[in-house]
Amino acid sequence: MPSKIATAKPHPAVTALLFVASVVLAGVISWFLYGSSDAGIELFCCPLFCTPPIVVVLTLILRSRKSSSLVTVLPLLVFPLLFILFFANIVYEKTPQYMFKRCVADPIPAGVTNIQGRYISQLVFVEAVITFQASPEAVDTIIAQNGFERDKVLDGYPDEDLPEYSWKGKWIGYEKRFYSEGGNLSGYVKMWYDQEQSLVVIRYVN
Questions:
Q1: SS3 state at 94
Q2: Which of 85, 93, 139, 161 lies deepest, with the highest CB count within 10 Å?
Q3: Which tens digits make up the pLDDT trace of 82-99?
Q4: Rounded distance, CA 128 to CA 61, Å?
């Protein structure tokens, strides 16, 4: 007769200990990769907060289907999977091409090259800085697509929050503002363009 192999269930205490270990490891990885930045907070907190409701829903589904053997290990499966998914999403969102499409124009106009970017903040609102080389035709396309307006106040005015960029040259300023339904300012996009360098600097806050 074929022998029956019993399926051993992990002890709840062992599951809890392993779950805590996985959370600690995720915290260490988040800190090592991004420190206390918005990305580090998002990478650690989002999977942690999303895991309990997902585990509850899956537990109810599995128990209704009499698959209780998986219930005790759900936290060990859900949290690491969510951590990997959020990490992959953060890596993708930090690519210069994605940042350009999100904050400037999608698709990327012909004549735009050497795109670079970084996020200053990503939690409550998105604040990003993007630089790129662009032909005059590409700049005209970006201005038209975004509805930028000339802002002479920004002409040659270096953004003191962006000291890493060389502000030598003849910079021409443009700006677009976002307003809430109540008419309050909710964000803006500032653009500086130096035609001699074919260089564009954009600061996006929204």
A1: coil
A2: 139
A3: 999 999 988 898 899 999
A4: 42
